[in-house]
Amino acid sequence: MPPRCLSRHSCRVALTTATHCCMASATDYFQRLQSVQNAAAHLVTGARRRDHITRVLRQLHWLPVRQRVVFKITGLVHQSLAAVAPAYLADDCHLLSDAGRRPLRSNSNDMQKLLVPRTHNKLDDRSFSAAGSWLWNDLPPGLWWPGLSFNCFRQSLKTHLD
Q: What is the pLDDT of residues 64-114, one digit of tens each?
């Protein structure tokens, strides 16, 4: 193999290895954040270590880390649809009704669903356009109502996630 090809190959291998490390550490990152949140909740409330953390988090009105991420992303999607979010976020949210797709009579809720872009790998699945659309479509239809104020949306969403 010529040296030039060898260097391209080694760069690709290094990039692939680095990507796999980042993907594996994402799960570990959530676990570490959750343990930090749990420790903080125990510290703030004075709860004993053996007390169940779900009760402690509910007492503080805190969502677990993964649900907090869902809360933040869907909040950004709501703001994007209300044209309050920055343009770079709003450009990633496309309603199915705006995408030229004909809604079915059997499902009138499709009017507020978002078009989920086709992705080709796990990294693309984590983009705002894909994850935000997927999470939005997974919400109960009552939260999709376009006239819902942001504060009412947040309150209803927190109740739904809790």
A: 999 999 999 999 988 888 888 888 888 878 787 765 655 555 455 556 788
**Domain spans of the chain?**
1-61, 63-162
> Measuring CA to CA, which residue among 140, 162, 155 is closest to residue 75?
155
- What is the rounded distance in angstroms from the CA atom of residue 56 to the CA atom of residue 45? 7
Distance CA 5, CA 70 (A): 43
Flag whether the pTM goes above 0.85. no
| Amino acid at the residue 50 | R
**DSSP codes of every residue in 123-161:** HHHTSHHHHHHHHHHHS-GGGG-TT--HHHHHHHHHHHH
Q: Count of alpha carbons within 13 Å of 53, Cβ hemisphere only?
A: 15
Distance, CA of 118 to CA of 133 (rounded, Å) = 11
- Directed axis angle between helix 3-45 and helix 65-81, to 10°? 100
Nearest of 113, 141, 116 to residue 131 by alpha carbon: 116
Yes or no: say if 132 and 114 are a contact pair by the CB < 8 Å rule: yes
How far is it, in rounded angstroms, from Cα 57 to Cα 36? Answer: 12
Distance (Å, rounded) from C-alpha 134 to C-alpha 151?
Answer: 22
